[in-house]
Specification:
alpha+beta, 4-stranded mixed β-sheet, 4 helices, globular, Thioredoxin, disulfide bond, electron transport
């Protein structure tokens, strides 16, 4: 399977895409990982979660002006609709995602 470009990934038809901009050396990013896994499992089939390593993908990080990590950006129909830097508690993240899950174009 060919590797998709970042823009192809965030234009996922029919479902929002949550992108986690992170780095392996980042402590708060490591704290965010289990929260993202839990949220992805709860919204399975309704939302896509993608992790983007800013050290390996600096162009994607620059495109969305990611200055601190972790930064989460939620894309809906290819457009950023929500973003937050730092660790986001699971209840807060679920609340944000719930407002976008199920919206169809």
């Amino acid at each position: 399977m060919a590797k998709k470009s970042f823009n192809e990934l965030i234009n996922s038809p029919g479902m929002p895409v949550l992108v986690d901009f992170y780095a392996d050396w980042c402590g708060p990013c490591k704290a965010m990982a289990p929260i993202l896994e839990q949220v992805a499992a709860q919204h399975q089939g309704k939302i896509k979660v993608i992790k983007v390593d800013v050290d390996r993908n600096p162009a994607a990080a620059q495109q969305f002006r990611v200055q601190g990590i972790p930064t989460l950006i939620l894309f809906h129909k290819g457009q950023p609709v929500w973003r937050q830097s730092g660790v986001v508690p699971e209840p807060q993240l679920n609340q944000v995602l719930s407002s976008y899950v199920g919206q169809r174009a």
